[in-house]
Amino acid sequence: MNENFSELNPAWLLSKAELTTWAQVKDTNRPTLTGSPKWRNYVKFLEKKLREYGVVDITKNRWDFERWYTSDDPSKWSLTSDGTPVRVAHYGAYSGSTGHEGITVELIFYDHQNPPKSIKDKIVVIPTLPHPQPPYKEEYIQFSTFNDYEYRTDDPFAPLFEYVDPAETFTFDTMYQLQQQFHELAIEGEAAGMIIVYDMAFERSKGLYTFVVPTLHDLPSLTLAREDGIKVIADAKAGKTANLRLEAVIEQAEAYQLIAYLPGKNYGTPADEQILLINHTDGPSISQDNGALGLLAIIKYFSQIPQAPRPRTLTVLLDCRHYMPGMEEAHRDFS
What we know:
Layout: H1 16-28, H2 37-52, E1 56-69, E2 77-81, E3 84-86, E4 90-91, E5 103-109, E6 123-127, H3 138-144, H4 171-178, H5 182-188, E7 193-197, H6 202-205, E8 221-224, H7 226-237, E9 241-246, E10 249-262, E11 274-280, H8 291-303, E12 313-319
Parallel strand pairs: 5-6, 6-7, 7-8, 11-12
Antiparallel strand pairs: 1-10, 2-3, 2-9, 4-8, 5-9, 10-12
């Protein structure tokens, strides 16, 4: 038995075939939005594999909530502006429902430099804000700039904690636009509906799920790409009429955090030491929510060492609030 924990044992690593199978399971069940059938399938798969690898004392921290959902394709959402159909990139999550006929009202453009006096009972069209000018707020530095490099070499890299041109990267530019939370502005102004226009091409904005996910509200919302927003912005400035349709369903659903332990040699005693492995199981794509597969691979690896030589317990916490309505900031202290 190789008990040198500083060296990998290739025989215990995940095989290419296993990795492919796991990825296919995840891909089949996307988007894994909390409480949905696909989310339940994915979490059941993770639990089944964890049990196979010898975890113990599995706990499910459960709660019920109202799950809002619509179609993954445009069959349940659409936009017609001044009589012309407009291609829609995606919908605003948890933003209520218009019913099958949609709502047909006047558009109004929201100029950030010169906001309209009233947006009440109109469909407000809001372009995302450009990047702020320095000095940057701490939140912007933390979430919307490069702040670390895992494997930095002598090659030229963008400077840390600085704005990166979208021509070079889209990651932080996308996150900055997603987090602008304009639904709060539109709700306060009693708008009938909202259209967000991203400063992104359609292929980049297509399918972008609302993040941070808001609590359930009644402000039917859609998102447009830059090229499709040009006409709608012009129509809004001209006071044209539009039909916004977003058909959605609300159901009672259950969510839970999955907690499990791969016991170390002192598990169950005051001498036990634990390493916390945490990731989320919910998300809109295979790139956002497949981290749990990485934790599963870690558990598989260490499960091949008998419990007696394992110096510490591996504690797995699979969370589901990252893409859950109004829960991103909740219960972040896992100490």
